Amino acid sequence: MKTIINTENAPAPIGPYNQAVLSGNTLYISGQIPIDPVSGNLVEGDIKLEAKQCMENLKAILNAADMGFDNVVKSSIFLADMNKFSSVNEVYGSYFDEATAPARETVEVANLPKFVNVEISMIAIK
């Protein structure tokens, strides 16, 4: 059985998917790009602000499922330019306690939706 998780505090999906799916105690969160859920506009121009918007979108979805970043067990970060890794990592790291941070991979990709610079997805467990 699965439960669909959607919140107005994160951007609405831009395709045939949901913000997240809860299956049992596991939450699978779709990749979040730096869209401001209030304006619907992309946050652009500063990779740290872009990464922060991704993380805030993820936070809103976690909260909608009654979870937080301490529930995250796996993250995936997709970057258009690996040279921006340290800036994204700085922002990402500010949301976690390093001692209990989740497993993660970070990969450089050719393109991302709407040609953004960063996309982040997560898996969390209650």
From TrEMBL:
<comment type="similarity">
    <text>Belongs to the RutC family.</text>
</comment>
<dbReference type="GO" id="GO:0019239">
    <property type="term" value="F:deaminase activity"/>
</dbReference>
<dbReference type="InterPro" id="IPR006056">
    <property type="entry name" value="RidA"/>
</dbReference>
<dbReference type="Pfam" id="PF01042">
    <property type="entry name" value="Ribonuc_L-PSP"/>
</dbReference>
<dbReference type="InterPro" id="IPR035959">
    <property type="entry name" value="RutC-like_sf"/>
</dbReference>
<dbReference type="GO" id="GO:0005829">
    <property type="term" value="C:cytosol"/>
</dbReference>
<dbReference type="InterPro" id="IPR006175">
    <property type="entry name" value="YjgF/YER057c/UK114"/>
</dbReference>
<protein>
    <submittedName>
        <fullName>RidA family protein</fullName>
    </submittedName>
</protein>
